[in-house]
Amino acid sequence: MPGRRQPATRIELLQGTLDLLILQTLRWGPRHGYGISQLIRSQSGDVLQVDTGSLYPALHRLEKNGWVRAEWQLSENRQRVREYRLTADGRRQLAAERSKWERFSAAMAGIMNPPLETKP
Asked: Looking at the domain assignment, is residue 106 inside a domain?
């Protein structure tokens, strides 16, 4: 049917969620940008997809904040890539972000699945 949109299979990330995803991904070990985006995609069952237009500005912001450190490395196919790793400050920030996310998730669950109300 013309003008009818197909249902979206991607979920748009909430503002601020990308930082949490990147920090969590780097908790599992150093990665270059493409590796970070691929891990987010695969660990989310292909639901979350981060485009480069969002990923690299977020990585630069995290680096500027001191939460990640970047170094040039040679990849397996001998190309220069920037590898990102979590810093001690980044680990602390990840703990704070996870705590906020857990409170947010619990609040959403309370609204989406309220306890059964009893009739007076």
From this structure: no
Within a domain: residue 67?
A: yes
Q: Are 32 and 82 in contact (CB under 8 A)?
A: yes
* Beta carbons of 120 and 106 less than 8 angstroms apart: no
CA-nearest of 54, 68, 45, 65 to 18 is: 54
Tell me the pLDDT tens digit for each residue of 16-72.
799 999 999 999 999 999 999 999 999 999 999 999 999 999 999 999 999 999 999
Q: What is residue 83's three-state secondary structure? A: strand
Beta pairing partners, 86: 68
Dist CA 109 CA 97 (whole Å): 18
Cα→Cα distances 50→19, 37, 85, 96, Å: 11, 6, 18, 22
What CATH number is given to the structural domain containing 29? 1.10.10.10
